[in-house]
TrEMBL record:
Entries under Gene3D superfamilies matching the protein: 3.60.21.10
Parts of the chain that traverse the membrane: 6-24, 481-500, 553-573, 608-628, 640-659, 665-689
Protein name, as recorded: Uncharacterized protein
Upper classification of the organism: Eukaryota, Fungi, Fungi incertae sedis, Mucoromycota, Mucoromycotina
Keyword check for Transmembrane: yes
Protein source organism: Phycomyces blakesleeanus (strain ATCC 8743b / DSM 1359 / FGSC 10004 / NBRC 33097 / NRRL 1555)
Domain Calcineurin-like phosphoesterase residue range list: 64-272
Length: 737
């Protein structure tokens, strides 16, 4: 009979896995596509056989500007709107770039208390008016970030204010989320591709952090990337690749296949993380031989980036707004409902220096840049951005801390603030790392730049610490692995003991054998290291094998819990408050959020899922298997209760984000789950309740000691005589739930 039951458990689990496969395929269907045979011809690499040498002419160079994460806000006086207006008023006229690219999060879209989110037309109007009135003669490209698609029922929805107020909205609409432009210059062709990776239906915050590209969007991306051969191809997106899910194009191209044909991926989104973790969110991806360069936000850190391409060498500098702006913090909000923008007074900026030759070795791309140009060049080259006339600037250069003998001279013009200085690279050691420092003094301010370079065409490490590591990982797959591994771990440890013990019935059960062995090891004198390892492993295994018999209800609870979490919706909530009627609601699955019959394969479910599975399931699984909730000290038990309360409060916050307790807390499996966990924690013998009860009668020590002692002897008879009562309590309490 028991054997049959064991097989039924297994069969049931396997059926659930069938559904897991089905849900996985269904939820990610839009990321895959039926294969169409390849029609793209892979463009040839650029032919750099005719050498062009870098000298003193203001030729072969252009530059553009990137900003990110503006977060124009209706409610925040500091940073945000203020910095954005200053960028346009004080910085842009000095930079005069070919174009500006904004990589998302144009508006903040958070409410006054920073809890819920919605699109505010005032924020969008200001963005629009500021560009119309403040930006003349500079092309402006933009795309949405996750804040721009909070609470967004669809692209066509009235809530999609980017569609009416964004600068590149029509390009994005035509290109299905992707658009591109080209710079055709006399010395080369350069391609720029902007990627809007927002979810099609954007949930309100916080479950809207990740982006994805469907298979259709990947087709678009592939057609742009592979359209022709370019000197360089650049991609722009709000989301770093670690927070993206890339589909596969209908010709089978993955993101990696395409990124190989590009030189750099510019993004934002992570701001600078916290505590200095994200100071350098930049990395070189060896697999695609390309750079990924996150830019900190304009909103708080006041950062903007200038990127120059000089004779196909890519250089960039991330600069904060002048401290005069950063320190001026308006007390009052900048009114957003004026049709005329209230501009702040322009502020002078210190000279910004961008060295383009030699190129910084940390960001070299040996496969895609003509690095040998550095060694052959006759002049150092750098751009100096300043509102003053070049004649008022005093430039000094140091190489390897020695003042450079040749003077710097301005060779640029109105459009190109280029400075050069003669140099002789052959006088420097070929195989070493060198430093160059350029300092520009005005009568009142100083600007400088210092980089490390090499002459042997090699790269050096980015040395970005945690930030570089974060950009190099793939968060989505990591979260999926953590979740999958936790589920497998628990299911295997739940099922194997049952199947194994039942299958062994005619002979002796492993529990008996291991108990004997343990007892033998215990008697060993003196105890040996190997012996104690063996004891630990054996007693651990024994706990798992006894778990189904000793705490059958808890065991069943975990089996059912895991299978429900894998196959059923976790909760239903109002993810899209601005939609009509029932369209406001979505069902949260581990696999994605389902609106009606449409799946959003947004990876936020994996983040939430991994946290829940580890903190709400795995932790308690370990506690219950080892009966820590019964055996632990009083302090441990109260710690457990505090932990449980913390988990409950986290869960209750869903109501705050998603429109109150109905349906987010009522149609919610996790609420039932945590209630049940609470009952098991408190209600069992030796659980919190009994603890308090017994303490009142002052007989704690005996009973506890006796119980633990028996347990440690590994005698199963003593504990099994107690356990049924434990279960009895569970059963009673469970009915109440
Ligand atoms: C750009 O590529 C072309 C070949 O396609 C090459 O002739 C030209 O020199 C390159 N431009 C630069 C600046 O290297």
């Amino acid at each position: 009979m028991a054997v049959v039951r064991a097989w039924i458990y297994l069969l049931f689990t396997l059926i659930c896995f069938g559904r897991v496969w089905y849900l996985f395929r269904l939820s990610t269907a839009s990321l895959r596509a039926p294969r169409i045979p390849t029609t793209h011809t892979i463009p040839a690499d650029v032919d750099r056989s005719i050498p062009i040498s870098m000298g003193a002419e203001p030729k072969g160079i252009f530059y553009f500007v990137q900003i990110s994460d503006l977060h124009i806000s209706k409610f925040r006086p500091k940073g945000h709107t203020h910095y954005f207006l200053h960028f346009i008023r004080s910085i842009l006229p000095v930079l005069k770039p070919s174009f500006v690219v904004v990589t998302g999060d144009l508006t903040d879209a958070k409410d006054m208390r920073r809890v819920t989110s919605q699109q505010y037309v005032e924020e969008w109007s200001l963005y629009n008016y500021a560009i119309d009135q403040g930006v003349q003669g500079t092309r402006w490209y933009d795309m949405r970030g996750n804040h721009d698609c909070f609470d967004l029922p669809s692209w066509k929805s009235r809530a999609n204010l980017y569609r009416t107020h964004g600068q590149s909205a029509s390009l994005i609409a035509e290109g299905g989320g992707i658009y591109a432009w080209e710079e055709r210059l006399e010395y080369g062709r350069y391609k720029f591709i902007a990627i809007d990776a927002c979810p099609k239906k954007g949930p309100s915050r916080p479950l809207n952090f990740f982006g994805y590209l469907t298979s259709k969007a990947m087709d678009q991306l592939a057609s742009h990337v592979l359209s022709d051969s370019y000197n360089h191809t650049f991609m722009f997106s709000h989301y770093p690749t670690t927070t993206m899910v890339f589909g596969v194009s209908s010709q089978g191209y993955t993101y990696r296949d395409l990124a190989r044909h590009t030189s750099a991926y510019f993004c934002g989104h992570l701001h600078r993380l916290i505590g200095g973790l994200g100071d350098i969110l930049q990395a070189y991806h060896p697999s695609t031989q390309s750079l990924e360069l996150e830019l900190g936000d304009l909103k708080e850190h006041g950062l903007y980036r200038i990127v120059a391409i000089d004779h196909d060498l890519i250089s960039f500098v991330d600069t904060p707004l002048p401290s005069a702006i950063m320190k001026s913090r308006p007390e009052r909000l900048i009114p957003l409902d004026n049709t005329t923008v209230l501009w702040p007074h322009a502020v002078d900026i210190a000279p910004v220096v961008l060295i383009t030759n030699p190129k910084e070795a940390r960001f070299s791309i040996p496969a895609k840049e003509p690095l040998e140009q550095i060694q052959k060049s006759t002049h150092l080259r750098f751009l100096v951005f300043s509102s003053l006339d070049p004649s008022q600037l005093q430039v000094s250069i140091w190489i390897d801390n020695i003042e450079h003998i040749h003077p710097a001279e301005f060779v640029g013009n109105q459009e190109m603030p280029l400075w050069v200085a003669k140099w002789d690279p052959s006088s420097l050691e070929l195989k070493e790392l060198h430093t160059i420092r350029v300092q520009v003094d005005t009568p009142t301010m100083i600007g400088s730049s210092s980089i490390e370079f090499r002459l042997d065409n090699q790269r050096t490490k980015v040395n970005g610490g945690t930030g570089e590591w974060i950009i190099s990982t793939h968060m989505t797959s990591t979260l999926q692995c953590i979740t999958a591994f936790s589920f497998l771990f628990m299911l295997i440890l739940l099922l194997v003991p049952v199947l194994h013990t039942q299958a062994n019935i005619p002979t002796r059960s492993p529990i008996e054998i291991w108990s004997k062995k343990l007892a033998a090891l215990d008697r060993q004198d003196p105890p040996r290291i190997y012996g104690s390892v063996q004891t630990n492993v054996l007693s651990s295994a024994l706990q798992f094998y006894q778990f189904p018999q000793e705490q059958p209800i808890v065991w069943h609870g975990f089996l059912v819990g895991c299978l429900v979490l894998l196959t059923c919706p976790w909760f239903r909530a109002e993810f899209l408050p601005s939609a009509e009627g029932n369209e406001r609601y979505g069902n949260f699955y581990l696999w994605g959020i389902m609106f009606g019959s449409v799946w959003e394969p947004i990876a936020d479910t994996w983040l939430f899922g991994a946290l829940t599975v580890v903190l709400d399931v795995l932790v308690f699984f370990v506690v219950f298997v080892y009966r820590l909730h019964l055996k632990g000290s009083a302090r441990f038990k109260s710690g457990m209760v505090v932990y449980w309360l913390w988990r409950v409060s986290e869960l209750l916050s869903l109501a705050m984000f998603y429109g109150g307790w109905w349906p987010s807390l009522v149609l919610n499996f996790l609420v039932a789950w945590l209630c049940w966990i609470g009952v098991v924690l408190v209600g069992g013998i030796g659980g919190i309740w009994t603890q308090i009860h017994v303490q009142q009668q002052n007989i704690v020590p005996d009973k506890e000691a006796q119980w633990t002692q028996e347990d440690e002897n590994g005698s199963s008879s003593s504990s099994s005589s107690i356990e049924p009562i434990v279960c009895g309590v569970h059963v009673k309490n469970r009915r109440k739930v």
